[in-house]
Design brief:
Largest sheet: 5 strands, antiparallel
Number of strands: 16
Helix content: under 10%
Distance between the termini: 37 Å
Strand order of the largest sheet: 5-6-7-14-13
CATH topology of the largest domain: Immunoglobulin-like
Order of helices and strands: EEEEEEEEEEEEEEHEEHH
Radius of gyration: 26 Å
Number of helices: 3
Number of domains: 2
CATH architecture of the largest domain: Sandwich
Shape: flat
Strand content: 25-35%
């Protein structure tokens, strides 16, 4: 609520007979994630190894990542990629190699510095760390970076000894190393799916479960994979046949989605 009185600049006041004027204000919604060095609520662990945890979530096109903050003589890095590429030199003059990334978030052991690197132009990104025992966290605008939200992102956490040439701690990288060779290979990234789950019942893919979908399912009813009338998009339970279970799924979802 905003309370106000008015003055016309010439000495005339209006204070609503001493009761003031009141305007009810609707507060704006807060940010999707808060950058304060504390792990945000309801963000799942996507990789865990040797006491290191890597967290990630996406809300409204914003990727949130977090991991153990730097300390104990190690610099910490979170690498993100639409598709991890060929091995390239590790960042910050560390030893070894890392599968090519789109951007990375770094936290330096020797001071309170943290930030994003290699982020594409137009990508809004923020970072924060907490007190020792907190987290390194960051947000990254996927749409601003790539022009669209990808169906998936791949992430990896790498802790390195803080000195130039410092080695990767393979026992603490997350996901865990496959061979402890001091590199973070593409197979050592974890996949984060961003694609919306399929809409059960939407046979024709128009985003609305309607009579057209029911007609499509009934036309394929009884068909199995390999039959000419089989329609994979009507096989909601993925048993390779269009059966009563699929019909029940469609009827249970009837009218859902973006329907006129």
């Amino acid at each position: 609520q905003v309370d106000a009185v008015f003055n016309n600049g010439a000495g005339t006041w209006d204070n609503n007979s001493g009761a003031d004027w009141h305007v009810t204000a609707q507060g704006a919604s807060g940010p999707d994630f808060v950058m304060d060095g504390a792990l945000d609520a309801n963000v799942p662990v996507i990789a865990d190894n040797g006491g290191s945890q890597l967290y990630a979530a996406v809300r409204n096109g914003v990727l949130y990542v977090a991991a153990n903050d730097a300390g104990e003589g190690r610099d910490h890095f979170i690498f993100i990629a639409r598709t991890p590429g060929a091995l390239r030199a590790a960042p910050w003059a560390k030893s070894g190699q890392v599968a090519d990334w789109d951007a990375f978030l770094a936290d330096e052991n020797d001071n309170d510095y943290e930030g994003w690197f290699d982020a594409p132009a137009g990508a809004a990104a923020q970072a924060a760390t907490g007190a020792n025992g907190g987290v390194l966290e960051g947000v990254f605008d996927l749409d601003g970076a790539f022009g669209a939200i990808p169906d998936e992102m791949w992430l990896a956490f790498g802790p390195y000894a803080t000195a130039d040439g410092g080695a990767l701690s393979a026992t603490r990288q997350a996901p865990g190393s496959l061979d402890s060779d001091g590199n973070i290979q593409s197979a050592e990234f974890v996949r984060l799916s961003l694609a919306a789950p399929p809409l059960i019942g939407d046979v024709d893919g128009d985003g609305c479960v309607s009579l057209g979908d029911l007609a499509g399912l009934l036309a394929a009813f009884g068909a199995c994979d390999g039959d000419t009338t089989y329609v994979a998009t009507a096989d909601f339970d993925n048993d390779d046949c269009i059966t009563l279970g699929d019909l029940a799924g469609l009827l249970g979802a009837f009218g859902s989605g973006d329907c006129p």
